[in-house]
Amino acid sequence: MKPPLLLIGQGSQDDAYAAEFGRFVHRLRCRLDQTGADVSGGYLERATPRLSDSVASLVARGHHRLVALQLSLSRVSDDFPAAMAREQQRHPTLMYDYGRPLGPDPRVLTLLAERLNDAATEISRPRALELAGARPRLRAVDSLPVEEHHAHVEPGDTAVVLVGEGSTDAAANAEIHRVSRLFWETHAYDFMTVETAFVSVTPPGVPGGLERCRRLGAKRVIVVPYLLFAGGLLERVWAQALAYGAGHPDLDIRCAEVIGDCETLADVVIDRYEEALQLVP
């Protein structure tokens, strides 16, 4: 029997993110069940199941070696190795190997390109921001056909803003800038530019990225979230973009979807898992 795969999320109290994370774990469980490999998922903080509970469950089922993979597009956080070290203290027989982070895998960039193209070809775009309780939620409402609101825009007059999560780690932020450049050269070379922005913590924010594109002369800007799953972070990206758009009605601003739970993303994770197994003595 192969060692199990333990997918580790940073953790969020966001129900939408947790639901999609759970669906993705189930997708991988169905895929790897054919090879006799168990799959479990846990969070470092703020959400359940916690990492410690998932590890305890695997050990109780007789697993003493596993492959741990942080489900992240950026660099592995410092919390991840520390958390696994604590689990090894709790379970002295536990051995584990790390899987590499996901991005910027070429297939991840291809998924971003698909989300970009979907947003570029949509005949309508979300224009309203609805408040559900104290939390903003986006909805496509009273949408107008693009041709009624904006004339045809060529790719050369269209800019892209790739939005990362943002971190206090300068190297992690630099990685997002690197992804933007790779994405531009490999999948978005017909567009005016691919600018980098962040949801929070570090500048430029989404409005800053949009403003730079406007000053470069873009007639349309497509915001592409460099995020795995939908949830609060995506809503913040869209809310910031729509707020900026309200003050610049002549600029056609569109918002793409996240990468999301899909077979291609599962392929990338499985490859990282198989790669880690090659390192097992």
Automatic annotation (TrEMBL):
InterPro entries: CbiX-like (IPR002762), Sirohydro_Cobaltochel/CbiX (IPR050963). The keyword Lyase applies. One of its GO terms (molecular function) is metal ion binding. It comes from the Bacteria. Gene3D superfamilies: 3.40.50.1400. SUPFAM superfamilies: Chelatase. Keywords: Lyase, Metal-binding. This is Sirohydrochlorin chelatase. It comes from Nonomuraea deserti.
